[in-house]
Structure formats: C-alpha cells, structure tokens
C-alpha cells in the first residue's frame, strides 16, 4: 500500500516542480527538535482518531489556514498523514498548494476535530466516575 500520494509528474522531464529539488538541496535544514518531533507524532496519533470518528460522518479531511499565503488549505486524511510523515523524516514541510475546488463542507479544522473527539470521549466516559 502506498503511504504517500502518487506524483503524477514522476519521471516527466517537463515536471514544473523539477527545479524545486535543486533549490532545497542548497538549504540545509536542521532536524526537528525532540519537542517538535513529539508534537508531530502526537498530531499523527490525533489524526488517526479524527479520521476514525469523522470519516463516517462524511468529513474527508482537515482545513488548515496557511501561514504563508493566509488562505485555507484542504487536506484529505492520507495527504495530511503523508505530509506529517515527510516532516518527521526530512525535518521540513513539503511544498504545497491549495486543493483544486474542494468542497469546504467536507473539511473541518483541527480545533473542531479535537473538540469532536473530546465530546465523544466525554460521552463515552460519562457516568463511569460516579460508579466508583
């Protein structure tokens, strides 16, 4: 099973992003700190929970406000998971562009997903403290 999305330009000599790899080689990236690494691992763990809870309701992924362009970026579950794994292995985020014509109704924010998961957890554990 493929962990990351397939590159439609893989091996294409006219790949519009071919030169980007050369630019990135000149930039020495520092590895993630232990704290940053732990944060990414926690995000990956949270992402699994969010997907399990929200996919059955029709949610396809998360929307993230891009700090660079200040526009919302829509990521399906697998793409976001691949981006986080890439960050863990390389120490730097991938170059990204906004999704083409996503339906915003199928994406939620990290905060919404976290609140939803917390609500499900609270509902499932409600009353268990009173029984002791």
UniProtKB/TrEMBL annotation:
Residues 22-33 have a biased composition (Acidic residues). It comes from the Bacteria. Residues 1-38 are annotated as: Disordered. This is DUF5319 domain-containing protein. It comes from Actinoplanes aureus.
């Amino acid at each position: 099973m493929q962990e990351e999305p397939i590159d439609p330009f893989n091996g294409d000599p006219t790949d519009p992003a071919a030169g980007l790899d050369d630019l990135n080689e000149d930039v020495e990236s520092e590895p993630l700190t232990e704290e940053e690494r732990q944060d990414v691992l926690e995000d990956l763990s949270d992402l699994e929970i969010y997907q399990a809870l929200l996919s059955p309701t029709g949610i396809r992924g998360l929307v993230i406000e891009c700090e660079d362009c200040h526009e919302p970026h829509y990521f399906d579950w697998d793409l976001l998971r691949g981006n986080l794994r890439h960050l863990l292995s390389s120490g730097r985020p991938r170059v990204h562009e906004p999704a083409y014509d996503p339906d915003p109704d199928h994406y939620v924010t990290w905060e919404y997903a976290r609140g939803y998961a917390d609500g499900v957890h609270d509902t499932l554990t409600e009353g268990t403290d009173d029984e002791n």
